[in-house]
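Aim 2 progress. For DUF3617 family protein, the working sequence is reproduced below.
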Amino acid sequence: MLLRIGLFASLALVVIAGGAPAVASVDRSPKPGGVYRLKPGIYVQKGVACETAPNAAIRQYDGRGISDAHSRACRVRVLARKGDRYSVSQSCIDAGAGPAPRVSERQTVTVRDALTFTIQTRGPGTTYRYCPAYMLPAGLRGAAK
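Predicted structure tokens for this construct:
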């Protein structure tokens, strides 16, 4: 009798699920890590939609630094850390592509969690949040991996 109930319950689940077995979505993107312990990928300024973000609102974290559309190969040197707040010197190649000089800049980066950070260079800081690849415009999806 118990075997029949178990079989009936299994069939009921298949019917409820529309006859197809459930498939779980697996996050294959890199785990949080690197100098800031953020998830590597594309971040968009708070208040801006991931799908339509302009270049000025996008940052990319690769575990070694935070770049924008006009910089690459950024490397952070932590000068001081107090809790989730980092005082750093970040150097980047000052061009999105092609030859360019490496420039350095002092920044304060506050990491709220593995998906959110605030960066302050001069004046007030700007907060960015992680955007998963599927939410980005097609041209950015490859950069997010």
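Confidence is low (pLDDT under 50) at residues 1-24. This observation will guide construct design in the next reporting period.
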